[in-house]
Amino acid sequence: MPPDPFADDPDDPARVLDEPDDEAGPPMSDEEREELLADLSDLAVYQALLEPRGVRGIVVDCGECQEPHYHDWALLAASLEQLLNDGRMRPHEPAFDPDPVSYVSWEYCRGYADGVTASENAL
């Protein structure tokens, strides 16, 4: 490996990548942890039911920027797992040129899963 050109440089721009984040919030409660585990479990069910029907993931309306955010199944699962493990989600790249027709809301997923369960129980 070539030598690091910023070795021992106090102004190394990559230094901030190694520094701990002071914005860490309070530890996750047991209830919050259980809710996240339930969300991960639900997400796996939603993906199993909807991905074969052409649904690529979930759309979430962002309260901060007032824009819809499109999350592919794997990206959302990884984000929830990171929140579970680290207590926070790091920023990620948004979906590139998503087709809004291919994404549904969490509520749609829940309703769809409930409908499938109800129809299976009716048999």
| Number of strand segments | 3
User: Treating each run of at least 4 consecutive H or I residues as one helix, how many helices?
Assistant: 4
| Beta-strand residue percentage | 5-15%
Terminal CA distance: 65 Å
Oligomeric state of the chains present here: single chain
Rounded to the nearest angstrom, the radius of gyration is 20 Å
Q: Compute the average pLDDT.
A: 86
Q: Which runs of at least 5 residues are low in confidence (pLDDT < 50)?
A: none
Structural shape: elongated
Secondary-structure element order, as H and E?
Answer: HHEEHEH
Can you tell me about this structure?
Helix content is 46%, strand content 10%. The chain is mainly alpha-helical. A three-stranded mixed β-sheet has the order 2-1-3. Strand 1 and strand 2 form a beta hairpin. The longest helix is centred in the N-terminal third of the chain and has 21 residues, at 30-50. The protein is elongated.
Keywords:
123 residues; 3-stranded mixed β-sheet; 10% strand; mainly alpha
What's this, in brief?
This protein is mainly alpha-helical. 46% of the residues lie in helices and 10% in strands. Helix 2 (30-50) runs antiparallel to helix 3 and helix 2 crosses helix 4.
Task: Show the helix and strand layout.
Blueprint: H1 15-18, H2 30-50, E1 57-61, E2 68-72, H3 73-86, E3 103-104, H4 106-122
Parallel strand pairs: 1-3
Antiparallel strand pairs: 1-2
Helix pairs in contact: 2-3, 2-4
